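Teaching soon. Invent one.


***
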Amino acid sequence: MKTIKLTTETKKDVLTTLLKRGVGQFPDHERVVNEIINSIKVNGDSALFNYTKIFDKCDINAENIRVTKEEIAAAYERVDPEFVAVMKRAAANIISFHEKQKRESWFETKPDGSILGQRITPLDISGVYIPGGKAAYPASVLMNVIPAKVAGVLRIVAVTPPDAKGNVYDGTLVACDIAGVNEIYKAGGAQAIAALAFGTESIPKVDKVTGPGNMYVTLAKKACFGFVSIDSLAGPSEILVLADEAANPRYIAADLLSQAEHDELASAILVTTSSELAEKVSQEVDKFLDELPRSDIMKASLENYGYILLAKDMEEAIELTNDIAAEHVEILTKAPFEIMPKIRHAGALFLGEYSSEPLGDYFAGPNHIIPTNGTARFFSPLSVEDFTKKSSIIAYSAAGLKEVHKDIELFAEKEGLTAHANAIRVRFER
């Protein structure tokens, strides 16, 4: 891995390079995505089936697009029972964590009898995109679906690309069943996002679309936002490890590569105050690259977006960590809980050498759908709240309105909205 000493200039270069992975950097992709979306809007199922034939080499029609109960049962027969048990244990942890996020509606009655409040209700129908290309992610199914179930969403629709024979990855089907998906459709890519956003003859229109995907999927979510709610515009995965001389270099190397293996655009960064640790981590990375199967992907990721950044002190290291605002931030220092309050921007924080990032990906319970590419400065992980909406409740009494009506009339008149003022005034004409 390349080791760089932090200066104002090198810091600017690193931040600029990382931002090149954002969804706004692919205009040619956007043109293709917009063509697909428009075709789905106009032609519905026929366009969806045609794109599935082109991109997935699979003949899908209205009769076989929906996964059957028999297909799910067959998937259970083929999946390792131990893996099924692990998914169920992970689901239990995810449910337990997300149950704590639930919020209740509230009402407040004033002495004059007026009532104010907030009513919280779940979405009617939510859609989840499940990748099926370079890798399948059953864990992502659990993370996307369970918060919606906990929130009270009654109908959850999943889309996932089939293989050339019309099959869906067995682990995906089992995870959908464990999480509580109501319907699964064999559709992938930008066309599946458009189908969820606008509806086709086979796939219902949903209120929200969540789930990871490639650049075409992400750009389709961006283009459909407003017609449908989305979780976020997730970029490639990333990890930042903040470490001092006390950290274990082998652990750090392993954790960096756990994200670099996602794809060539993934980013893995070590920020440290120790040049000795930096050298040892680089050596350990090279050793792992000789051993691990996805080394070509990891090498490309590290070449383009992998860094070991040497800071003069921990203050500078913390400042850079906040500037990068990474998806996953591991704090591997002598006193990680002392550092934690100083990290203002991070999708998820992993404290101590036994809190490796994959723990959050699969099992601990917090959601692994986390803001990327610097958006942790203003976005949060997927949560139960993302699948609810809030309605304000206003029920004033005559006495309550009488006390403030002149204030409201004055406010409206100062804005030149005389009909607003009149709507209040007429109630006190007598």
Summary: The first strand starts at residue 3 and ends at 5. The mean pLDDT is 95. The CA atoms of residues 312 and 353 lie 23 Å apart. The chain has 17 helices and 14 strands.
